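Before relying on records like the one below, remember that each one covers exactly one chain. Contacts with other chains, cofactors or solvent are not represented anywhere in the record.
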Amino acid sequence: MRQVKSQSRTGVRAAPRGKTMKKNSKVAPGKRRNTSAMSTFGRRRDRPAGPVAAWIENLREGNFGTRPFAWGAVALIAGVIVYGIVIGGHAQAAADAAGRQVNRVLALSGFSIQDVRVTGRAQTRKEDLLAAVGVERGDPIFGFDTEAARQRIERLGWVGSATVTRLLPDTIRIEVKEREPFALWQRGGTLSIIDAEGRPITEEGVQDFAHLPFIVGFGAPREATALLNLMRAEQPQLLQRVRAFVRVSDRRWNLRLENGVDVKLPETGVEKALADLAAYDTQYKILSRDIVSVDLRLPDRVSVELTEGAATNQGIATEATMKNGAVRTGVTSRGGNT
């Protein structure tokens, strides 16, 4: 009979029973060697190394290229160049040049200075102020240094403080606060205007301020404010008669009156001395007589020096008893103007 090949239910034919299976390998599957992993010398191949490890291995074997050293040399040269630029200030110069070019472009776009507005200016000359600002029409407004301009403006004699701002797109605004003139100061042959803090303002145009108090001597500006404020508050009528305040040895004051009489004030107790002088003048009219000086340096008496022809007249009694001492004619206190 014809032998029928058996077939599984899945449709796969079974091998004939008469044929034997292929002979199995004597080597276990887990112990088989991968011949492709063997080197030409029969050794197991190493895992492929990374770039750094390979480079180190090449160094060990003396097999390396010059490319890494070339890149290192390029980096070193670039570092030296950058360091030289920074240390030498060329980087800032390059940045400034680039900034100027940008400002020029912006100026062409309409951001250029066309107007300078000033408020608060009374005594400061316009020419001096514009010279201190240091701009010209058409300059880039973003290239204008407001802080530097403010410092230059405040160096002007009349300027106490200033504020400089930009008003985009084309205007610079300057607000000036000027110093108040307080007195005229003479030292040596120089005459100048000073403020209430005793700082000189200018030596120009002093003839326009002849109405200000006139002070004389070194150290006078520093001490004049206290004396003038005292007389304005306590003796305003006497203050109106003073033509000059003379500082003597930087210790005390002489008052030169409008009629040429010198009033010698003490170093201390000035307020009391002025009050006594006003009382003496009210009672005896001594400041209206033919006298040369009134000495108030001694606290218990007032010494009056007469002119040469006044002693024979009856303008002032030769010896008059006063509440705080005596009025003496023809006597000059010891020490002169010290």
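The first strand starts at residue 115 and ends at 119.
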